[in-house]
Prior knowledge:
Elements: E1 12-16, H1 20-32, E2 43-47, H2 54-61, E3 69-73, H3 80-88, H4 91-94, E4 96-101, E5 104-106, H5 110-121, E6 127-131, E7 137-138, E8 143-144, E9 154-157, E10 165-168, H6 169-180, H7 194-197, H8 205-215, E11 218-222, E12 227-229, E13 267-268, H9 277-285, E14 292-295, E15 314-317, E16 323-329, H10 338-341, E17 349-357, H11 365-372, H12 378-392
Parallel strand pairs: 1-2, 1-4, 2-3, 6-11, 9-13, 14-15
Antiparallel strand pairs: 4-10, 5-12, 6-10, 7-8, 9-11, 15-17, 16-17
Helix pairs in contact: 1-2
Amino acid sequence: MDSSSQTNETPIVVIAYNRDKALQRLLTSLASADYAGHTDIPLIISIDQSENGDVLKTVQAFVWPYGEKRIITHEKRLGLKQHVLECGDHSKAYGSVILLEDDLFVSRDFYHYTVSALRFTENDGKVGGISLYNHLLNVHVREPFFAVEDGFDNYYMQFASSWGQAYTKKQWEGFTAWLQDRKDMALTSPDIPENVRKWSDSSWLKYNIAYLIEKDMYFLYPRSSLTTNFMSAGEHSGAESHDLQVPVGIFAGKDYRFGSLQGSKSRYDAFFENMGLKTVLSERFSVPEEETCIDLYGYRTETGEGESSGRFSYLLSSRALPRKILHSYARALRPIDANILYDRAGNDFFLYSLKEKGEAPRVDMDGRVLYNYRALNVKKMIRVLRRQVCLRLPRLK
């Protein structure tokens, strides 16, 4: 009998390649997690072909006391994109799936959260997947990101997750069916961040993001992250980095309170911009939502959006542009979108009428840096920069 017919539990699928030490760390965190109320949880460990025999040894030695442990080895190299797609297909047999790459670490409550989120979203056709990771960094501009609080344990973003994610069968099949029709698709839409469009063709994630944007769908994200990312050296990363480390809770058995996508006041696009700000500006200044572009991070218009493309008549941005300013806001409250929500006047974010010329405002870039990196110690940073420069200079012979 097929193992998938013996359990109704969502399987945990680990995507492994050649990082045995990172894999051991992930497996240890999985073994330490809380699974109260759940039995017979399948653990599937899929190993892409590599020369590192220690990966298989690590998996074989690992004891999984919560259900069946299944090891899949691939004799031919799949590459990350195809490997992830094959791992996601396990949702077809089990009804849902949790995908974890081997450089992740899970919190104790990751399984409870994921199962709860899958149940909550299973009938919402606008939700394309579940993230276990909570972004605290806008990956396009490498500045802090915080989703505004709206009273729920989740927010929504038009940005698929690869640092711990889950799908119902329907969510996964929607994406893969779309991808099948677009195998050789070039991602050219300006609604897709330039950063994403430049990712390697071996990236499956950029297509998942493009799918969400084209279909006007979202991922559900947690307020408290259930995974964190070590960025261990591998196919798409160099030396291990702490840049993407986020806090993970030590709690277990939490009763999650999810808010629906339709009623969410914390909803973001693929540029990490708050989509609700269009409604706020429309109510205050009578600017049409469909003609307004939100660009608080100053990144979106650099891809051909806003004033240069003619798609929009109004732009809310941190950039200095020679256009008429209808209103301006401060960079004082946190997160940055709170300054607009609470109508905090200042000279850091500007609502432009793009079809009318004006004098470009002065932008305080130093203030922006100090706002974003408040723990910055100038003397220590100078020492670090000097040291890094010395390390990179060729040695004199």
